[in-house]
Specification:
Length: 326
């Protein structure tokens, strides 16, 4: 997450390079993570704001994260959408490459539904904690510094994802030239980024780290299925229902293939098929005589055992040839 007045390096052509890198990485994967791809697309679309979507996608000035405006006007648009906006191409490209790397690992391990529910939870937690921190600092005369600042970017969620991804790691990582335990890499990156780029949103990054820790704590306390995961599964099923309906409509109907063998109980099928006791051929329930051998169906739905013993197999074969030509 970056402040509005941050001076990022001017760049040209970063988005095509980012898209090329993303496509190249996806091409190598056996299983393509759809939620990560959707997040990349959403962030890029919000930044580009093509002309045909400008009446739907608000400008960045209308969605900057600002604690004062969110609290005073209950502006939930700023609360949720500010994470999907970026100040320039460099800001977008850096965050999306980080999202690509973390998203592939987490979604491949957790599954798409649980990953989507985690992202929703981390987004709400990181934005909410950042808002609480900004409000709390008013009691320490930091009102102008944090409560009224404007910020945007997905880095708060990325810091939370980093905490979740590295929580169980016992290895070490190199963070800008410093070797630190991987599980604490997010804290080291928080401090170093603030030193190297002072104008980034410190509270936004800190809120992301705390959101990751809170999420892990809640997961440890609640072992059952996540309500958010159930909600995501339901929404996915609802959204994919039209597609499944179209596919079923165009898919040719499968007719029942009748053949030898008995179905159901005592040769009577619950789907309206009866088995001939003479040749064991499965016949439609609408027929009163066997299609193959012509044996009449008895009143109880069964062909008699007596007929089965009287008709030789050669004669049954001849009847089948005469009826079907084979």
């Amino acid at each position: 997450m970056a402040r509005r007045n941050v001076r990022w390096p001017v760049s040209n052509g970063m988005i095509p390079l980012m898209l090329f890198q993303a496509v190249n990485e996806y091409r190598k994967l056996d299983r393509k993570p759809p939620v990560t791809a959707a997040l990349l697309a959403a962030n890029t679309l919000m930044y580009l704001r093509p002309d045909f979507l400008r009446h739907i996608i608000p400008s960045i000035d209308d969605v900057f994260f600002n604690a004062h405006l969110i609290v005073k006007y209950w502006d939930l648009k700023r609360f949720f959408l500010s994470a999907f906006y970026h100040l320039n191409e460099s800001h977008l490209a850096y965050n999306m490459m980080s999202l690509l790397w973390k998203g592939i690992q987490l979604e491949s391990t957790m599954g798409s539904n649980e990953f989507a529910s985690m992202i929703a939870a981390l987004l709400g937690l990181s934005q909410g904690i950042t808002l609480l921190l900004a409000k709390s600092l008013m009691f320490f005369d930091y009102e102008d510094a944090y409560y009224h600042e404007y910020a945007a970017g997905f880095s708060g969620v990325l810091f939370a994802m980093k905490v979740v991804l590295n929580a169980q790691s016992d290895s070490y990582s190199n963070v800008h030239g410093f070797t630190v335990p991987t599980k604490h890499a997010a804290w080291a990156e928080l401090v170093l980024i603030q030193m190297l780029v002072p104008n980034v949103s410190f509270l936004g990054h800190l809120g992301g780290i705390l959101a990751g820790l809170v999420y892990l704590r809640l997961k440890a306390l609640y072992r059952g299925p996540s309500p958010l995961t159930k909600l995501v599964k339901g929404l996915t099923s609802l959204m994919s229902w039209p597609l499944r309906s179209v596919l079923r409509f165009w898919q040719p109907s499968q007719q029942r293939t009748f053949g030898r063998g008995r179905t159901g109980v005592n040769g009577v099928s619950t789907s309206g098929v009866w088995s001939c006791r003479a040749c064991t051929f499965d016949n439609s329930g609408w027929l009163t005589a066997c299609e193959v051998c012509g044996t009449a169906r008895s009143d109880d739905g069964l062909a008699s055992f007596r007929v089965s013993n009287e008709i030789p197999h050669d004669e049954i074969r001849q009847r089948r040839i005469q009826r079907f030509g084979r």
